[in-house]
Amino acid sequence: MIKIGELCTGCAACLLVCPVSVLSIEKTKAVVSDGCIDCGLCIPACPISVIQFVPKESKKVEEKKRPEPTIIKEESKKGDEVNGEGNTSNSRV
Ligand code: SF4
Ligand code: SF4
User: Fold this and answer.
1) Which of 55, 60, 88, 92 is the most exposed place for a label (fewest CB within 10 A)?
2) What digits encode the pLDDT tens for the residues 58-82?
3) Nearest C-alpha to atom 5 of ligand 1 is from which residue?
């Protein structure tokens, strides 16, 4: 969904680019009606940049719970274990 700022001058430049014709001028300001497909074409068309995207639902994403960090025990970090016969990194050429 787009939002048209209060500073809109009603120049109608945005109306010309909207592919679904949901923009119109009412009382010298642009308004958007239902049916906007969020294509974003009107945003760069505005000479004074008063059109912006707004999320349809203003959900607060930052409140999403994060999982507790996993603590790795020292015992399981021993990476120098003998690899056996499968280890070819030390073989001479
Ligand atoms: S985002 Fe696209 S469909 Fe929506 S008002 Fe702007 S130009 Fe029209
Ligand atoms: S292009 Fe911008 S200033 Fe012109 S009518 Fe659309 S929103 Fe308003």
Assistant:
1) 92
2) 555 555 556 677 777 766 555 555 5
3) 36
